[in-house]
Amino acid sequence: MNRRRAARIWLSVLALSPVVACAETPLLVDADDSSGFALYRSGRLSRAEVGEICRLGVEEILVLDGGAEERECRFRRQECPGLAVRYNLTQDADSPVSASFLQAFDAWIDEARREGKKVAFRCRHGWHRAGRLAAYYRIRFDAATVEEAKREMHEIGRLMARHPTLDPQVQAYADSSAGRPCSTAQEHCVALEPDPGAPSGRFPADVCGESR
After folding, report:
1. Against a cut of 0.85, is the pTM above it?
2. Is residue 201 within 8 Å of 65, Cβ to Cβ?
3. What is the rounded average pLDDT of the residues 44-62?
4. Which of 56, 60, 116, 186 is the most buried (most CB within 10 A)?
5. Does 86 have pLDDT greater than 80?
6. C-alpha 187: how far from its chain's center?
7. In order of start, what are the domains of the chain with their CATH numbers?
8. d(CA 117, CA 53)
9. Does residue 22 have a pLDDT over 60?
């Protein structure tokens, strides 16, 4: 399936079905049928939904609300033993992510696309932190314009007015991706301090404490 077509299909479904718009439902961000690669976004996952992403073939997940120990790390024992949690820190929707996080995300996506892996990322509701990361993905890997990426972020998200910093952050991430100086106010620009979950620009193999 064409990547842009996959996004349009999900946006059409979202417009027609409030059930699919539920924050916890894994939503397809992108897919490449020729390689097997797929990327999903989600809100907080229940035990059954951890099993569902496993049935979808998801092998790795980034957790942006710091809640993996009580969910993915716990539920995978019974529902998805092969699931690796590559990141588990609480990001702030109103504070920009760091350059080292974006570098690690780029490397993670490059590897997943090259190896044909299915991967996912989530936050609490699937709207704000997940939305800005999906917008960055669109710009970096799907040749979307900043306005296209922001429009999709708002169409899928809810309560977006609570986080007016997201739009300028997306612009700043686009600048960073293109190697341009940040064109927004400094507080929205990519942070310079390393992300504790990816200090060297790579995500750990698995952050859950117990063996799978």
Report:
1. yes
2. no
3. 95
4. 60
5. yes
6. 22
7. 3-188 (3.90.190.10)
8. 13
9. no
Q: For 115-151, how does the pLDDT look when each residue is reduced to its tens digit (9 = 90+)?
A: 999 999 999 999 999 999 999 999 999 999 999 999 9
Whether the predicted pLDDT of 50 surpasses 90: yes
Q: Tell me the one-letter amino acid at 183.
A: S
SS (H, E, C) the chain: CCHHHHHHHHHHHHHHCCCCCCCCCCEEEEEECCCCEEEEEECCCCHHHHHHHHHCCEEEEEECECCCCCCHHHHHHHHCCCCEEEEECECCCCCCCEHHHHHHHHHHHHHHHHHCCEEEEECCCCCCHHHHHHHHHHHHHCCCCHHHHHHHHHHHCCCHHHCCCHHHHHHHHHHHHHCCCCCCCHHHCCECCCCCCCCCCCCCCCCCCCCC
d(CA 50, CA 24): 10
What tens digit of pLDDT does each residue of 151-167 get? Answer: 999 999 999 999 999 99
